[in-house]
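Action item from last meeting closed. Structure (95 res):
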């Protein structure tokens, strides 16, 4: 998940705490360093815990890319098409 650029690092620096202090008991300091550098996190639990420690709301700093999401209605139609194709396949039984 993409984060608002520099949001974690900026907040950590505002609070005057090190990466090691923020990461303690949550993740390795090196992971926090990578998250701060790339503004990307793959584990929501880690993000939530880091945000708690930094007194941030995860939903405020997470950027949701809606263009990369498929609407549920489209997914349902795709599933129905697959089900119909499976039903229409002739059953070939050789005797």
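Sequence:
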């Amino acid at each position: 998940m993409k984060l608002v650029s520099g949001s974690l690092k900026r907040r950590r620096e505002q609070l005057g705490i090190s990466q090691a202090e923020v990461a303690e008991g949550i993740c390795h300091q090196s992971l926090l360093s990578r998250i701060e550098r790339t503004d990307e996190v793959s584990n929501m639990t880690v993000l939530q815990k880091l945000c708690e420690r930094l007194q941030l709301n995860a939903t405020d700093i997470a950027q949701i890319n809606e263009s990369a999401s498929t609407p549920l209605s489209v997914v349902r139609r795709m599933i129905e098409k697959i089900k119909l194709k499976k039903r229409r396949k002739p059953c070939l039984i050789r005797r």
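Note appended to the action item: Helices lie at 7-15, 19-23, 29-38, 44-53, 58-61, 72-88.
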